[in-house]
Recover the amino acids of this structure.
C-alpha cells in the first residue's frame, strides 16, 4: 500500500495551551519492490533508519548499516496476539557507530474491527499494554511513523503525546485527524460546558424566630464569560421565605470553570 510521495504529518508535545510541533515524513524512491527511501522536514531529529519496507502486510524500518529490520506495524495480527514494538534504538558510541542498544514494549491486540476513512473501509487494530496505540491498514499507526519518536529520552519510559494528523498522497488526504481542518491546523476548541450548569443550592438563614428565617436558592446559569483568560458562570439568586417571596437577583459571585 505504500507509494512514493506519501507524506505523514506528525504532531507531538502538544497540550491544552500549545499546538506542539509538527514533522512531515515523505516516502522517496522505491529502490526495490516495497522498499522506499524517506525524508523529513520540521524539527531536526536523528533517525537511525535508512529505508521503510512494506512486505506481506508488515512495515519495517531498516537500518542497513547493521542490517536490522525493526517492525513498525503488522496488519496480519489477530485479536489476542502479542507484538513487540521498538521503543529505544540508541547508538552507544556515535563516533564508532557501535551496535545499537534496543528496547521493546510488549502490546496485545485487544480489538480488530473496521473503520471508514474517507469513504474507504479499513481494518483497525487496537493495541494495549506497555503503551496504547491504534493501527489502521493503509494508514499506519495513528501515533507515529517510527515507534521510537515518542519516547521522552533514552533514560525515560515516559512517552510524549504524539499523533498523526494526516496522510496525503497525490494531493489528497488518505487520512485526516478529526480534530484538524488540515494537516497542521487544529479545529477551533469548543468552550467546555461547565458541569455545574443547572445545579441548584438551597439554604436557610436562621434568625431568632421561625418568622424571620430566610430561604435562598442559587442556580448556575449557562451564560459563560471570560475574565483574564478564565471562564466564569454566573449564579442567579432567589430569596424566598414562608411569608414572602423575594425578587430574582443575580449573585455577585460566580462559578469558575
Amino acid at each position: 500500500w505504500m507509494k512514493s510521495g506519501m507524506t505523514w504529518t506528525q504532531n507531538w508535545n502538544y497540550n491544552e495551551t500549545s499546538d506542539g510541533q509538527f514533522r512531515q515524513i515523505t516516502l522517496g524512491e522505491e529502490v526495490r519492490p516495497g522498499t522506499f527511501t524517506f525524508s523529513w522536514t520540521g524539527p531536526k531529529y536523528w533517525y537511525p533508519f535508512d529505508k521503510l519496507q512494506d512486505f506481506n502486510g508488515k512495515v519495517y524500518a531498516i537500518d542497513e548499516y547493521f542490517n536490522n529490520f525493526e517492525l513498525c506495524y503488522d496488519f496480519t495480527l489477530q485479536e489476542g496476539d502479542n507484538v513487540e514494538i521498538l521503543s529505544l534504538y540508541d547508538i552507544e558510541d556515535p563516533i564508532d557507530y557501535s551496535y545499537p542498544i534496543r528496547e521493546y514494549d510488549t502490546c496485545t491486540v485487544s480489538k480488530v474491527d473496521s473503520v471508514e476513512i474517507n469513504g474507504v473501509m479499513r481494518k483497525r487494530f487496537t493495541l494495549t499494554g506497555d503503551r496504547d496505540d491504534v493501527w489502521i491498514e493503509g494508514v499506519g499507526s495513528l501515533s507515529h511513523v517510527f515507534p521510537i519518536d515518542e519516547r521522552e529520552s533514552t533514560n525515560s519510559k515516559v512517552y510524549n503525546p504524539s499523533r498523526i494528523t494526516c496522510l496525503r498522497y497525490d494531493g489528497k488526504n488518505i487520512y485526516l485527524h478529526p480534530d484538524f481542518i488540515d494537516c497542521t491546523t487544529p479545529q477551533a476548541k469548543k468552550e467546555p460546558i461547565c458541569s455545574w450548569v443547572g445545579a441548584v443550592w438551597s439554604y436557610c438563614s436562621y434568625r431568632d424566630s421561625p418568622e424571620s428565617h430566610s430561604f435562598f436558592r442559587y442556580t448556575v446559569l449557562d451564560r459563560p464569560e471570560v475574565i483574564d483568560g478564565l471562564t466564569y458562570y454566573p449564579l442567579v439568586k432567589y430569596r424566598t421565605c414562608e411569608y414572602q417571596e423575594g425578587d430574582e437577583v443575580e449573585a455577585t459571585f460566580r462559578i469558575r470553570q
